[in-house]
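Much of our argument rests on the idea that a fold can be written as discrete symbols. The amino acid sequence and the backbone structure tokens for this protein are reproduced below:

___
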Amino acid sequence: MSGGQISLHGKLKRRVVVGCVIDTNEPLHVGIGKETLSVSEVDLPTMVNKKDEPIIPGSSIKGALRAYVTRILSSLDISTGNTHFGVKKIKANEDEINDFQTEESPEIKEKKFSENLGVIDKLFGASGFASPLRLTDATLTGDTKLIKRTHVKIDNDLDRAEEGALFDIQAVPENRNFNFKLIFDEFNDSITEDVSKVFYKMILKQIGDGLEIFLGGMRSRGYGLCTIKAKQVLSYNPEELALGKTPEPITNISQFINDALKR
């Protein structure tokens, strides 16, 4: 049983909703882990919804973003990460996570949230604290016909193709578009300041410009390179959320980022 939940409710500063488009620069295979049931089936089918339309789960996009941000921050020296993003700690270790999870006192848990967790844990979520960053599933724009490609399994020991080891991959073709939404809740406190800076200065800025990232599987075989691009940004204050009002779309993302980071 997990410990007490940290509560930051009532401290919401703004909610940023970003409508995004994913362009497939290479064929995209988001698999379902299904084994072949008959000789007529594709060995590795792609994931589809109930309408038999290809989708990219929001969890897959979020996982790719988490890995990307972690890799970039881990490549920076401590001074650069702190100066530009306010990052003092990137990720918690297993013991720190467990210590945070099992804490029963909400007050002490909030203190450990600040001291134990890194910016990746606080932005993308950890047990005992829900992520302020949420993503919807990405749905395909328009109709498309899935492609099927045949590959051969390589024997790593012999460094050659295995005899008779052919398999088929189903994929979305290149130059197709998916739409999804990214929702970020910014809190009005100092212990999540690093989270806000990483979101605005890295994630939002780069998807505003167009972020190249790999999604799905079979990346070493020429699949998965995509571009995520923001097509609309909305910033809701608490009053607008409470009254159901829709703000005007942000027209200058760079200016919005600069303004948002002025506390």
